[in-house]
Amino acid sequence: MTHSKAAPPPVRRIVDEGLLIAISAVRMAVKNAIIVGALREHSDYDPARYARAAQHELHVLARQNEEYGKRVRGLRKVLARSGRVHLLTEDERADISQFALRRRVHKKLALALDAVAADDAQVARIVEDARQAASAEIRDAVSARLIRLAIDRRDPDYEERRAERIEVFKLVNLALLKAAHSARNGTAHNEY
Predict the structure, then answer these.
(1) Which of 126, 130, 150, 148 is nearest to 138 (CA)?
(2) What CA–CA distance (Å, rounded) separates 152 from 96?
(3) Could you tell me if 180 and 34 are in contact, meaning their C-beta atoms sit under 8 angstroms apart?
(4) Binning pLDDT at 50, 70 and 90, where does residue 132 land?
């Protein structure tokens, strides 16, 4: 009975999957920056600011992949020089091949990340997806807070606290309506 090793997936597929993961991480970083900008800094939504942030994150990931590629190349050289090829174990020869594959993947992924960073349309798409995710997260947090503010009308303090709850409800609802209107009209002015 012979055991055959599964062939590694093509480099292009590995790079494409790595790129999707990296773009997802960048989108999350930009989403978090939008939320912090809105809630902590009280700054208006500025697509150019977040596009620069997305490009920066993409370039950081590209440089990391270049460094990983160099490190893997060095490991491959050390292993290849550690003994004559015929003296290496089967696992060591497989490691040399694996290091070569990993180096190619890191190199191509760095190039792909730089290409995305240079493509204004792709960066704008990342930023828009991040903005939508940030808006949804803030909306969900506000909705959860409103639910926590709900009081049963049979509560003895219901009448006393009714005016306060109505005022809070109006403020939150107006903010949500304004955000929804801005999102629909593309003005994306953030009043959170």
Answers:
(1) 130
(2) 68
(3) no
(4) very high
What are the helix (H) ranges across 82-190? 90-118, 120-149, 158-185
**What Å distances lie between residue 135 and 129, 147, 162, 188, CA to CA?**
10, 18, 28, 10
Q: Which of 1-5, 76-80, 100-104, 163-167 has the highest mean pLDDT?
A: 100-104
pTM, rounded to two decimals: 0.68
5 φ, ψ (degrees, to nearest 5): -80, 140
Residue 192 has pLDDT above 50, yes or no: no
Q: What is the DSSP letter of 189?
A: -
Angle, in degrees to the nearest 10, between helices 90-118 and 11-39? 50
- Give pLDDT tens digits for 18-53: 999 999 999 999 999 999 988 888 888 899 999 999
Which of 49, 67, 64 has its CA nearest to residue 123? 49
DSSP state for residue 7 in the 8-state scheme: P
Query: CA-CA distance, 137 to 131, in Å (whole number)?
Result: 10
Q: Does residue 92 surpass a pLDDT of 70?
A: no
Residue bearing tokens 């909306």: 139
Query: Tokens representing 5?
Result: 């090793």
